[in-house]
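Propose amino acids for all 238 sites.
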């Protein structure tokens, strides 16, 4: 049985403060909530780390709400495994509200085993807490009949994520991004800084997230997903 992943107080505090500051800067939490959450987690930091290392989950009371923290495992083809955190607000909600409406996200990326296994694994952790279903093509772009399938999947999606890692050798992901652009689907372009070639000029104005590895990308995507969904009108504040 593989050993459970562990974290440190320094890592958890840094991650939590970055998450909280992103939410505050984009109007997702108030000044009071930010101060309460920061104070509560710092006071209970040792206990939170101990709980995460023991069971992978911890909770912290913040005013009338509760913060739930989870320690997950992320993957990168080059740098290996890394800690991936999930943070949720657990407020008392009426039964009528329940979960937010489900959204569908189409994912496009270079069709290699290493990228496929790592990227899809990471984005499942990022998207599912927000009730977003991840979808992708099952065959390579060069396969017969693929083009019609990709158009239909993008058409059915609420938004898309495209990762251009290794696209310098085979830039099919830009074709998929072009389809999304024509169909007027909001999308995020994950822009890998290790590529030999940059993003085509026609897509340079599109929202893109520069990243060096999947650890960076997963963290940035997780922090900014609520902002993206709000700003595109796909998800209203509850």
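Proposal:
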């Amino acid at each position: 049985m593989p050993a459970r992943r562990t974290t440190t107080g320094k890592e958890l505090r840094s991650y939590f403060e970055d998450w909280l500051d992103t939410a505050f800067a984009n109007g997702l939490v108030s000044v009071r909530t930010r101060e309460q959450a920061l104070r509560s987690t710092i006071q209970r930091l040792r206990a939170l780390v101990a709980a995460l290392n023991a069971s992978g989950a911890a909770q912290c009371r913040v005013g009338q709400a509760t913060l739930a923290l989870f320690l997950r495992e992320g993957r990168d083809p080059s740098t290996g495994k890394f800690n991936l955190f999930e943070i949720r607000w657990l407020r008392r909600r009426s039964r009528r509200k329940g979960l937010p409406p489900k959204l569908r996200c189409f994912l496009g990326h270079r069709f290699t085993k290493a990228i496929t296994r790592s990227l899809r694994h990471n984005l499942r952790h990022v998207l599912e807490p927000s009730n977003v279903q991840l979808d992708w093509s099952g065959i390579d772009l060069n396969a017969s009949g693929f083009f019609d399938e990709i158009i239909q999947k993008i058409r059915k999606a609420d938004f898309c994520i495209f990762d251009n890692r290794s696209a310098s050798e085979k830039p099919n992901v830009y074709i998929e991004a072009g389809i999304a652009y024509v169909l007027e689907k909001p999308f995020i372009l994950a822009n890998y800084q290790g590529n030999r070639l940059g993003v085509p000029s026609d897509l340079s104005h599109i929202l893109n997230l520069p990243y060096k590895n999947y650890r960076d990308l997963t963290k940035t995507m997780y922090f900014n997903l609520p902002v993206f969904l709000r700003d595109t009108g796909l998800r209203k504040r509850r």
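The radius of gyration is 19 Å. The longest strand covers residues 65-76.
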